[in-house]
Amino acid sequence: KQLEYEFDKRSFSDSLKHRQEMKAGELELASQKAELKHEQAQRYMLYGGLALLLVVAGVVWKAYSNKKKDNIEIQLQKSETERQKHLVEEKQQEIIDSINYAQRIQYALLANSNLLSENLGDHFVLFMPKDIVSGDFYWATLKNKRFYIAACDCTGHGVPGAFMSLLNISFLNEAVNEKNISGPDEVLNHVRMRLIENISQDGGQDGMDATLLWIDLENSWVKYAAAHNQPLVVTNGKATNFPADKMPVGKGERTESFRQFNLPVEKGDAIYLYTDGFPDQFGGPKGKKFKSKQLTEVLSVNSSLSMKEQKILLEKHFSDWKGNLEQIDDVCVIGIKV
Known about the structure:
The protein has 338 residues and is an alpha+beta fold. The chain has helices at residues 2-109, 113-120, 158-178, 184-199, 292-301, 307-322, and strands at residues 123-128, 136-143, 146-154, 207-216, 221-227, 232-235, 238-241, 249-250, 261-262, 270-274, 282-283, 288-289, 331-337. It is built from 6 helices and 13 strands. The strands form 3 sheets. Strands 2, 3, 4, 5, 8 and 9 form a 6-stranded antiparallel beta sheet that branches. It has a 5-stranded antiparallel beta sheet with strand order 1-13-10-6-7, sandwiched between helices. It starts with a helix and ends with a strand.
């Protein structure tokens, strides 16, 4: 029995040890599995991180590439814009140079200041183009001791008006100096005929408004013809507007000849010729036109002053009236002290 007891005891001990070893093995296996799982999770995290890093790197690279491409396109567009801007500036400068050259031609054809001073004495010419060149012009010439002077307003202003002014100056010179036409009415008739022949074939009504004086320097009389624009005479501060034919020098509804008028003046009187640019200028406190009535008042009040002083005052009146508004038309005013 003692042997049987010892055997059972040893068997039980071996069985317990075996179970313990099995348990330990299972624990070790579980630990190994857990470690493998942990390592696997770490690998997955590493792979995921690498994948995410690659994705982010790809996105960043794509964004960089797109930005670089966009920058190249922007630079190309900027270069093209600069090139186009440079071309526009070149063309604009060419146009300005051409207009400035046209201005020199126009000013060369306007009445010479020496010619005016020698034949008119005390006088002024207020000439303010709206643009570089003008549709308004003043013209004068001396023929057989008779002096012609005109203030004219061609259709349009700027370059179109300037071309018209050059044409009309040419026709005025042709009438008096080449055709020997003397009367101011006949001079305007000739210019009208030439305009219709040359530029009114297409039905256009380009032409000019004008006041043309014909002054006999020996006998001291003044005759005139006028298309729309009336001459003004101020005697001892009293202003008188003289008549004008209500038709342009050019193609229009009326086709009768212009009339010649006497302009009765005495020593000390002041004669004024002007286009519509000054009276039509908007300004003042209410932004309204200056109007011919107000211009007549200004000229009348200041008529006793020297023509130089009157010109300065007129320039100031115009500038003060216009203020910050745009000049709307060419301005031409001529003053002559008899």
